[in-house]
Amino acid sequence: MLSPKKVALIAASLALLIALPGRASGQGLDPASAQALAETLRMLQDPTLRGAAIGKDPKAAAIDQQLRGMTGGSEPVMKEFYELAAEIFNDLTRSLGGDVRQITQALERGQRDPAGFAAMLSPRTLQRLRELSTKMSDRPR
User: Domain for residue 141, yes or no?
Assistant: First the structure.
């Protein structure tokens, strides 16, 4: 079974890999960070923009291929996954004040402590994560 925590880590890792460079800041989102977040969220939700970003980064392309395998290539599930990736990235960025270093550290800690990572997500995001995880684990591969 594909755990919600693994789905969250994949989603957040992919979001971070294809995110636009942000500024490291520890307090709230400054205008540049807010703009970078908005552009990243738009890119994650727009298949054309997302495809272009994935095409530029071999690591993102590899994660995208892994995701396609986990979803059985279902475009509706892929769309839902990327929407969830955007939501997770938004949660992390806002909760960590847009600090790219802290976001990266949270993802690294999430590899060792998936429950701690999941606790950083909003209740709504966590519920969507559980639902998508179930949907993905039920799909034939």
Answer: no
